[in-house]
Design brief:
The structure is a single chain. By secondary structure, the chain is an alpha/beta fold. The protein folds into two domains: 182 residues, 3-Layer(aba) Sandwich (Rossmann fold); 114 residues, Rossmann fold (3-Layer(aba) Sandwich). 42% of the residues lie in helices and 18% in strands. It has eleven helices and eleven strands. The strands form two sheets. It has a seven-stranded mixed β-sheet, sandwiched between helices. It has a four-stranded parallel β-sheet with strand order 7-8-6-9, with helices on both faces. Helix 5 crosses helix 6 and helix 6 runs parallel beside helix 11. The chain is elongated and about 70 Å long. The N and C termini lie far apart (57 Å). The structure holds adenosine-5'-diphosphate (ADP) and 6-O-phosphono-beta-D-fructofuranose. The site of adenosine-5'-diphosphate has 18 residues, from helix 4.
Length: 319
């Protein structure tokens, strides 16, 4: 292992920079050269590679976003385009590629590995939607951002005795809604993994009102969507004023939390250790607070298990 390349792909996530720093510094520490790739797979097929040294990652550990930039590159789903990427890596004398991103990006890394590229995936996405790992880099920071917003929205909702529908990110995975809903004491959490009954929601809101609640926080995952329509429905049926807030991309920015920085540093270091052991087609993750590596095919084949228990606990505690 003499030379590696690193890229970030898909939606950015706070902590990606800390992961880049860890990969670069751990590689250099072990005498491995590092090439950065700008703009994910799109940059890779355009040959946007550059040499990185220890200063390339100075002063980034605490920064949100990704210094490597990121992109979505639909073309990468074509085998001939991936073959072009493999040829470019070979032409640069790169022995292995580290990919930081979500399930799509790691699927790209898996398919590249089928073309003979030694690849390791690091889970970087606010969605926490990769089943093989307990947490992804950026999830904790996004939760803290949502939590701050929920607290602000609760203040104004209480003053006006309103219902607040808050839509958070997560298309197929409701983890942001579930964890932020629990932490924010949401009266209802609506997410893609769980059927929801509009009439029961109205009953919950009205029961809360009758029990003296001054506000109602309804946490809604993007995968279910329709925050404005839901607020309008609640207002029309319950007779209580309701407002919708879609938090949007604010959830993807900001300085990473200490938890995310530590997680990113541990995972970045592990990615280099895995490559130095001669392994390929792997992902790194965290299970029961141990940093693990696993076969990329097996990891991606795992199906997420919805945390029913946490959902029920959140519901009971918000009575
Ligand atoms: P994330 O990595 O955050 O899940 P996406 O799902 O948008 O984000 O994937 C990011 C990029 O990964 C895509 O734009 C594409 O370049 C690559 N990718 C996603 N799915 C595949 C696939 N099935 N085959 C090859 N590349 C893929
Ligand atoms: O995968 C991260 C994520 O932020 C999702 O939660 C969200 O659905 C999507 O990316 C938004 O993508 P874009 O940045 O293309 O709007």
């Amino acid at each position: 292992m003499r030379k590696i390349a690193i890229l970030t792909s898909g939606g950015d996530a706070p902590g990606m920079n800390a992961a880049i720093r860890a990969v670069v510094r751990m590689a250099l520490h072990n005498g491995i050269e590092v090439m950065g790739v700008r703009r994910g797979y799109a940059g890779l097929i355009n040959g946007e590679l550059f040499r990185m040294d220890r200063h390339s990652v100075s002063d980034i550990i605490q920064r949100g976003g990704t210094i490597l930039r990121t992109a979505r590159c639909d073309e990468f789903k074509k085998e001939e385009v991936r073959q072009k990427a493999a040829n470019i890596l070979q032409a640069y004398g790169v022995d292995a590629l580290v990919v930081i991103g979500g399930d799509g990006s790691i699927t790209g890394a898996k398919l590249l590995s089928k073309l003979g590229v030694a690849a390791v995936g690091i889970p970087g996405t606010i969605d926490n939607d990769l089943a093989y790992t307990d947490y992804t880099i950026g999830f904790d920071t996004a939760l803290n951002t949502v939590h701050d917003a929920v607290n602000k929205l609760r203040d104004t909702s209480t003053s006006h005795e309103r219902v607040s529908v808050i839509e958070v990110m997560g298309r197929r995975c409701g983890d942001i809604a579930l964890y932020a809903g629990l932490a924010g004491g949401a009266e209802a959490i609506i997410l893609p993994e769980k059927e929801f009954d509009k009439e029961e929601l109205i009953r919950t809101i009205l029961d809360g009102k009758n029990n003296g609640k001054m506000h109602n926080i309804i946490m809604l995952a993007e995968g279910v969507g329709g925050a404005n329509e839901l607020a309008e429905y609640i207002q029309n049926i319950s007779g209580l004023e309701a407002r919708a807030t879609i938090l949007g991309h604010i959830q993807r920015g900001g300085s990473p939390t200490v938890n995310d920085i530590v997680l990113a540093s541990r995972m970045g270091a592990k990615a280099i250790e895995v490559l130095m052991e001669g392994k390929s087609a792997r992902v790194v993750g965290i299970k029961d607070n141990v940093i693990i590596d696993e076969d990329i095919d097996e990891a991606l084949a795992k199906k997420s298990v919805f945390d029913e228990k946490l959902y029920e606990v959140a519901k009971i505690l918000s009575m």
